[in-house]
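Repro:
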Amino acid sequence: MSKKWFMVLFFGCFGMTSEIFFVALTYAFSGEGIYNEPVWSLTGKTYVWMFPIYAMIPFIAGPLFKKVCSLHVIVRLLIYTALIFVVEFSTGFLLDQLTGKCPWEYTTGWHIMGYIRLDFTPAWMFFSFIIEKLYWMIDKRFA
């Protein structure tokens, strides 16, 4: 399998799995369950729409990682998070236009038109830090 295809599959699966964990932990910390499940079940969810969105990581982030690698880590994380917000807003808007509904429809927190939540900035910064490390690790393995 080529490096590019491996990265597409890996980041598509990793992104969806991360989202399931994030949703489960968010509901657990808020003290409410999801789908009438008890909080301790740590039930999470994601959307099939998310696979192609996360699978874009090697195409979008890969070239960006190479351009900004000399910058301080905090600056890189802010750049990555801004890019995540652009992609999340764009894909949310596009899905809303195509299907009549954005799957993640934010209604709480510091949301912008229901497509992004600015209060998720720390979570997206952490996620992008992990993505950057995984990208370079996979890149080295396939070198």
